[in-house]
Design brief:
single chain, alpha/beta, six-stranded parallel beta sheet, two-stranded parallel ribbon, 9 helices, 40% helix, globular, binds NADP nicotinamide-adenine-dinucleotide phosphate
Length: 297
């Protein structure tokens, strides 16, 4: 199976590269800026058609959630129109597409985990731009799977785990938001799930039931504060510096973008349709620390 991945250097793309190196029968090609730039849709078509993929995974995105509030045009160009251009090229190549999206399409007021057909109401430029990408991709290619994930971490890249470890090394105590709840999701587990989905699409051929939105996130719901404590617990077990983590309210940590209070995603659909399951947070964290300890990947 031939898989084209955009956003070659991001957390998820790197995890896909590492996962594929352990699997036979998969041929991956990665596209990155400046050759493939979602802000310049004219650069998207040729690299994808040239590779003639069976599947295109669009991981590339403008992911700076707070900065997007002051750069809405760029965020919408990349996450909205750019995703549409990738989907159009995938359609022309006869390829299925997986479009990564986000829990931030929801407003966070629901008290239970969000299911795929819950009403969307993004509260930030980033969330609105990703929602536009979901719609643009689905309009351009009938064989699009929109995969909404959340709170992504990895042994590499810019993420909460690495930020907490850096701050714990610098400060005597941390203050972390305790009234936003979400499902931390390990990038290598997303990569493994995507490859399992790819194999299912290959073995069963395309089914219309695959299309549409699926949620894929870690099984454990925690606050950012609880997540920080789990990270420092694991670090402490390995001899890392542990400092107290004080819970604070969102109101005490103002940010440019509004984030959902409840970000929990139900993954019942992706388990039923594709048979994928995600590892518990503590198992994923251990794996992440193992890889960071080995010098990262
Ligand atoms: N991170 C999260 O917590 C989170 C949560 C929910 C959903 N998601 C979604 O999951 C997907 C993967 O996220 P991630 O964490 O792997 O993201 P990431 O680590 O921030 O990587 C994003 C990648 O997109 C690339 N990119 C940015 N602008 C681009 C452009 N104009 N053209 C081409 N590539 C561009 C970046 O390239 P450079 O290396 O050149 O900067 C980077 O490699 C994204 O669609 C994101 O929206 C992420």
């Amino acid at each position: 199976m031939r898989i084209f991945v955009t956003g070659a250097n991001g957390q998820l793309a790197r995890a896909l590269r590492n996962a594929v190196s352990q699997q036979a029968g998969l041929d991956l090609r990665f596209g990155a800026r400046p050759e493939l730039d979602l802000a310049r849709p004219e650069t998207v078509r040729a690299p994808i058609l040239d590779f003639a993929p069976d599947l295109v995974v669009n991981t590339a995105a403008y992911t700076a959630v707070d900065r997007a509030e002051s750069e809405p045009d760029l965020a919408f160009a990349v996450n909205g129109a750019g995703a549409g251009a990738v989907a159009a090229a995938a359609a022309e190549a006869g390829a299925v597409m997986i479009q990564l999206s986000t829990d931030y399409v929801f407003d966070g007021t629901k008290t239970a985990p969000y299911v795929e057909d819950d009403p969307v109401a993004p509260q930030s430029v980033y969330g609105r731009s990703k929602l536009e990408g979901e719609l643009a991709a689905s309009a351009a290619n009938a064989r699009v799977i929109v995969l909404r994930t959340a709170w992504v971490f990895a042994p590499h890249g810019a993420n909460f785990v690495r930020t907490m470890l850096r701050l714990a090394a610098e400060r005597e105590r941390l203050r972390v938001v305790d009234d936003q709840i979400g499902c931390p999701t390990y990038a290598p587990d997303i990569a493994a799930a995507i490859l399992a989905m790819a194999r299912r699409i290959e073995s069963d051929s395309w089914r219309d039931s695959f299309a549409g939105v699926s949620h894929l996130a870690g099984p454990d719901a925690v606050s950012w504060c609880e997540f920080a404590r789990r990270i420092l617990d694991e670090s402490g077990r390995r001899g890392g510096r542990v400092v107290p983590v004080d819970p604070i309210a969102t109101a005490d940590y103002p940010t440019a973008a509004i984030r959902p209070t409840n970000s929990r995603l139900s993954t019942e659909r992706v388990a039923r349709i594709f048979g994928v399951a995600m590892r518990p947070l503590d198992d994923a964290l251990r794996d992440c620390f193992d890889l960071m300890g080995a010098g990262g990947v």
